[in-house]
Amino acid sequence: MGAQPKRILVVEDEPFVRHDLCDFFEDRGFQVFAAGTADEALRIIEEQPAFGAVLTDIHTPGAIDGLRLAHMVKERHPPTIVVVASGVTSPDREALPEGAHFLPKPFNPRAVLRQFD
């Protein structure tokens, strides 16, 4: 991983799921930031240097949802790995930003790690 830890932003409105995901990535050497809404995630993105990855649930409360957040991240920081997840809906490939990945919930977080290979 080198001297600098990889940085990931986890956007999940379910506190237990968010906590488990954060623990998983921290245990693997990531610097982890967490948000319960896409609105909160945008504030974090504006305040922090670029993230290596953003993992977001589609259905988050607030003014924007995780799918819109994914598009905004890819527009502002195209190299960012973006993973969109949902247990409710499965978006069409055309609905995802270019280069983004979709994971149906529940998923193994190791699937996110594979995006770094």
UniProtKB/TrEMBL annotation:
Please report a single Pfam family linked to this protein. Response_reg
Its keywords, alphabetically, are: Phosphoprotein
Q: Residues of the signal sequence?
A: none
For the Response regulatory domain, which residue ranges apply? 7-117
Residue positions of the PTM 4-aspartylphosphate? Answer: 57
Superkingdom of source: Bacteria
Q: Please give the InterPro entries that the UniProt record associates with this protein.
A: Bact_response_regulator, CheY-like_superfamily, Sig_transdc_resp-reg_receiver
By what name is this protein known? Response regulator
Q: What is the lineage of its organism?
A: Bacteria, Pseudomonadati, Pseudomonadota, Alphaproteobacteria, Sphingomonadales
